[in-house]
Amino acid sequence: MKRTMNLGGQALSEVPPLQEHTGLRELYLHDNQLTGLPDWLGDFRELRILDLSHQPLGALPDSLGQLTSLEFLYVSDLAVRALPDSLGELGSLRYLGATDNNLPVVPESLGRLRELVELRLYGNQLTVLPDSYGELSSLRELHLDRNPLAGVPGTFDQLTELRVMSLRGTALTEFPVALSRLPRLRHLDLRANRITWLPDLGPDAFPVLEKLDLRWLDLPVVPEWVHALERRGCLVYRTAA
Question: Between the CA of residue 13 and those of 61, 135, 151, what are the distances in Å?
Answer without folding.
Answer: 17, 38, 39
